[in-house]
């Protein structure tokens, strides 16, 4: 059989093309790890534009698996036709250059040519993924020197590749993302790949094109500094910036993934810029006596606008906040003036898990504000989650939730239906067209505020509070709300397709 000897050959002899077992293991381990790093980081790059949804995750995983399959097949096929050692350097170097350019290219595409985003995103995953996946069959070809050891070589390298993929996954999820910016991770990975390419080229054929690829990596790093979509801080979950209000010296806007998430007035916590926050304040102020301190729990923190409001207007209020992103909490402390002694206790934790730790009947108020414009933590939407909210509320307690939806409002209807399954009394606040009170107008979507309680909701007092704050919003309940909900499905831990129900806002579709 051509290319194979029937007699054993020492592992580090020229018959192995100068590739020893350790070098082979390092190449396979490193390239497999790099594929998973690219896959996971790509999810974070795309989340600000496509949402961290089931569809986005499925898309990225599908492309990555396609790249692995294509690279393995083509790498093995080409290695049978071309001298394998000629392929290793280019595979590592070109993939490194593409990886280093990915942050600048994706963010620029999302801002300037969004219709091409899916295509460009697919290529930035497919190209390096296929080239890196081709390394394993190429190295296998180089290491196969005897038919007698075929199974051993293939099995060993396959196991090493799987171990590399596991290492890349764990390293990225638990270490890299929490310590480095996304762009830094990819530029660093690209640098390592090009360095590996240069080393392989030096040992096999001379330096060749490695310097040119290194220049591409440098260009990728420089391009990232000027590409749109940059942020002051890349947290574990968000690209975050704090923007000063040019019209209000003490005003600050927390921008997460390009969306205005929270507005905080450092000198006047009672100043509420966003209409939905004014609506939440109206609901709470109508439900509880003026100035009465509350025991509140907040699912989602962001800029902590509403906990600050409660601390200012209801002295003695104790607010416990479950915020999953520790990076956002650091921004609250370092840039948005959160101080000890404000009556606000922030815990870095998942909101659902935070609910479980609370005692039954321990809260007057639970505020849900963890939903974003393009993604929803589905496990906070279900009957089971709402049952836990109801458990921690006292008998006169109130649940108030900020919802975001557009178009047919399928998600919002399903969530209000779920609330109706859990609480005895439910109401909804929003723009009249969005909540069915103005049938002549086309719903535009955006923020809605849902209310759930086991005591009746004072509709008149709530509407008066909404009008006093000049929100322009209305409140609906009873039969009108039942008609608006229609036949919307309940959301449960077993079935909650919120990614499919949610219709994100898109200027191109309006």
Automatic annotation (TrEMBL):
PANTHER family linked to this entry: THERMOSPERMINE SYNTHASE ACAULIS5 (PTHR43317)
Sorted UniProt keywords: Membrane, Polyamine biosynthesis, Transmembrane, Transmembrane helix
Domain of life assignment: Bacteria
Transmembrane segments: 24-46, 58-75, 87-106, 112-132, 153-176, 182-200, 212-230
Name by which UniProt lists this protein: Spermidine synthase
Native species: Streptomyces lomondensis
